[in-house]
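Colleagues,

For the teaching module next term, I've prepared a clean inverse folding example: a structure given as tokens, and then the sequence designed for it. I'd like students to try predicting residues themselves before seeing the answer, so please don't circulate the second half yet.
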């Protein structure tokens, strides 16, 4: 067997091939795909505002967790905003996320019924936040693999 032919031995002694795990998509790509899926479901158009905002904010929280290495799923909206304010060079990134998280909190906890324009703005801002904060690849002069540039690297 070659290195690519991984197998496991089952209880009866037979060898069973194991397929290698699919590589995990970068946080940016995962978030964009999830937002596309939420948009296609047209939840708020069916009156499912709470479900819509729950899915949008859960997607953003997972993205933030993977992108910034914090457990955003266990943090309040204000705690997340404080992290983003600390990590981001541009105040517009903070403002973009704040709109989505605050409106989401009102919908989920105060049973607010947002206007259609507010729902559209929240989805636009979710996409915008992900696009504004995705990691960029810096080209290497020696031709080696690019490295990720973060705010910490710029300091």
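(Answer key — instructors only)
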């Amino acid at each position: 067997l070659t290195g690519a032919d991984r197998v496991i031995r089952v209880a009866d002694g037979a060898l069973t091939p194991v397929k290698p795990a699919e590589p995990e998509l970068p946080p940016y790509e995962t978030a964009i795909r999830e937002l596309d899926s939420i948009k296609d479901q047209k939840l708020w158009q069916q009156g499912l505002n709470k479900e819509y905002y729950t899915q949008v904010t859960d997607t953003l929280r997972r993205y933030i967790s993977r992108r910034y290495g914090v457990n955003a799923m266990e943090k309040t909206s204000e705690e997340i905003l404080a992290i983003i304010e600390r990590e981001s060079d541009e105040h517009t990134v903070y403002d973009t996320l704040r709109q989505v998280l605050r409106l989401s909190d009102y919908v989920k906890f105060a049973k607010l019924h947002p206007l259609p324009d507010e729902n559209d703005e929240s989805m636009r801002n979710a996409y915008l936040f992900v696009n504004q904060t995705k990691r960029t690849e810096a080209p290497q002069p020696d031709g080696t693999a690019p490295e990720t540039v973060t705010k910490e690297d710029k300091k």
